[in-house]
TrEMBL record:
The lineage of its organism: Bacteria, Pseudomonadati, Bacteroidota, Bacteroidia, Bacteroidales. This is GyrI-like domain-containing protein. It comes from Dysgonomonas termitidis. InterPro entries: AraC_E-bd, Cass2, Reg_factor_effector_dom_sf, YobU-like_regulator. Residues 1-154 form the AraC effector-binding domain.
Amino acid sequence: MKQEEVVLDKFSVVGISVRTTNQDYKSQDDIAKLWEIFLRNGYLESMPKVSDDIYCIYTDYESDYTGEYTTVLGYKVADAGSIPTNLSLTIKEIPSCKYYKYISEGELPYAVGKTWAHIWQSDVDRRYLADFDVYGKEAKDPANAKITTYLSVNS
């Protein structure tokens, strides 16, 4: 699978989160439920977001991809300080660092799963800071979607 090296500036994402693990396929159930809640609750739509792109972030790793981690599903915002505090939302700052960028194409969620399976089997020197998938306009058709995955890596 082809990857491109990029350096991203730091940015903030606001959304909802779940603590999960890849052990015993727990993350598949947890993240599917998180997506269901995210898509059902319209209050996230009204937040002052940079775009309609949905970010699915994997962060706060206990160790590596075999340990616990937090998944945040939300939107990129220009100013996390402007987010209403009366909602129980997660605010996550994505650090500026080097990332490998992958493109997943095909049916959801299988196309993204295939990318992550490739990453887990690779020998990439990961940082485990914050990795994320971006679901933009090209991800609207679940039968033929295009999703971008960013993987934090060491220099």
